[in-house]
Each structure stands twice: as C-alpha cells, then as structure tokens.
Amino acid sequence: MTTLTRPAVKPEDGRFSAGPSRKRPGWTPAILNDAALGRSHRSALGKAKLKEIIDLTREVLEVPSDYRIAIVPASDTGAVEMAMWSMLGPRGVDVAAWESFGQAWVTDAESQLPLKDVRILTADYGKLPDLDQYTGDRDLVFTWNGTTGGVKVPNADFIPADREGITICDATSAAFAQPLPWDKLDVITYSWQKNMGGEAAHGMLILSPRAVERLESYTPPWPLPKIFRMTKGGKINEGLFKGATINTPSLMCVEDHLDALTWVRAQGGLQYMHDSADENARTLWDWMDRTPWIENLCAVAEQRSNTGVCMKIVDPRFQALDIDGQRAFAGAIVKLLGDEGVAVDFGSYRTAPPGFRVWASGLCAKSDIEALLPWLEWGFETIAAQTF
Question: I want to staple 243 with a disulfide (CB 3.0 to 4.6 A). Which of 46, 50, 288, 361 is the partner?
Fold first, then answer.
C-alpha cells in the first residue's frame, strides 16, 4: 500500500457530531445578547419569545395551518414518549425500528406501556424492516430517519391515505433535511440539537387534527406524569401550543434557536436546508464509491440518510479482526483525526457496526466535508500500517 502524504488542508469546522450538531455558519455568542435572561418564561417577553419560535417553525418548516406546534420537555425523547403514553391503547400498535433510538420506542411499547396488541417490525443496522406490513388499521410508531443507522424511509407510500390509526413519527434527524409528507403524519417530533444546531433538552411536538381528536376522545387507563399531559377537562390545552410550556425552558436556548430559524429563513428556507444536506451527503457517497476500503452502511441508495451518513470499513484485514479489534481500529482513526485538530465526534454509534458517522446537514459547509476526506484516507492508512 502506498503511504499517503499527510494532508495540508483541514476543515474550518471539524465538528461532525450527530447532536448537538454544529452551529450555523457565522454563529457567535453575541447572538445571545437579546436573550430574555433572568426573566420568567411566563412574562410577556418570555411568552413572546416562545410564541415566536412556534410561528417561525411553522413558516420555515412549512407546517400546515391546522397542525398544532408545541415546545415540550426532555428533547425528542420526551416528545415521542409524551405522544406514546397519551395516545396509544385504543388500537393495536405497530412499532418499526432499525436502529438504537427506534428500539427505545420498542422498549416503551413492549415493556413499559401495558399495551395488549403490539407488533414489532425490526431490521438490523443499515436496513429497513418490511414497512408494507403496516395496513393502516393500527397505530404506528416509527423513526423517519434512523440517526444511528444511516437509513431513512424514502417516502410514506407505505402509509395508507385512508388509514384509521394514527402515525407517530420521530423525525428528529429528518426535520429540516428531508421532505415530510404532513398528510401521512399525525404526530411529528424532533429536537433543536440535530439539524438546527441547538442545545439539548427542548423537544418539538407537532400534532395533526387527527392526533388532537385522539387526545380528546381517549383517556389512557394509566397515570400520566405532569410533563405528558396535553389535555384539560377532556379538551386539548391550547395554551401549550401558544408558548405556555409545561415546565421551564431555557430562554438562552430559546434565543439560540430563534437565531437558527431566522438564519435558515434568510438562506431561502426549507429548500436550502434540503439541498445543502443532499449536496453534502452526495459528496460523502461519491467518495465511498471510489474508495475500496469503505462503504455506506446502507446498501440501498434511496434509503440512505443525508444527515447522519454512516460508513462501514470493508477492508479484508479489518474484517478479519474480532469485534473488539474492529472497534479499536475505527476508534484509533477517530482519535488520530481528533488529535490532529481535523475532526471530532464522528465515530459510529456505540452499538452500531464499527466505522464512522459524519453529520452532513444544511449547517455544514460542503468545503468542510471535502477537506475531511483526504484525512480519512490518511488516517486509515496510518492506523493500518500500525495494525497489520
């Protein structure tokens, strides 16, 4: 093997973490100067900031006017569980999972909620389960984009337009990067820290009219914690969807997210984010196509994520290692590039096949992706020379 020369050009921003992801280009702490620090989130100023997030979210994400939007506790996890614990039970439930976070909803449905009729649709990392098993007469819980597996659903054709059940979609790494067919989705959840570079702990919950109907017509037989309660006296709590949050949000994080939404709008809105993520992901996909030792973890092109691009090492010498050896090899490359000040936080998820996960959303400059690639090649050859 020819030894590569150590590359000279580094990414300007080497933060390729899947969340919290990097800030928008040009971000500085000065954007927080107008934050409502030291003010109550119940004050006129605090409520106005929270309502502005809801309004900007509707505009930028192009949410239908009859869908309700709320800021909820505990990030995307809290938003998904809020929906599951409040709405599931009157029908059979299908839960589709093909990576770690989807498996968390499997655990809720199978082991935590006392549901009587649960069907699990699963697949290994890098693959989708047979979603055509969903017939629409049951409720459905699924992730749109598998954050840790690099696999997305290519469309919502598997969801019948005349479905009777409700669909709960964990869209945390798809929102702002992939088209979401609102007419097929009844509950949509995501967090600020994925494609928008926000800080942790704040979730977004978007409800269709069908979801509201379920909330107002069904009372679960189990007790609900305060942070899950969306109704009062059998009616939807409208204040929640006007910025009257259940618990105390960080008004510093609120200001940060307002900045991100405003920036996206200034770039041209949702289409800009979609196009940028597609272009960044394509740069990585094309590199993998011409690099013999690495492949996309997802073999089906139309199912590949354009945000968390997951890669597996396929060099025969690597494949001959046991799993601990493979994790050590891939981890050594991640550490080497981190020590070089090139890239950080781009290793594969701890339960995924050893390799890399590079975040490629619309906040990432294509030039940073391009600058990373020679370093990945150099890192592989350097660690291979030390290992084999």
Answer: 50
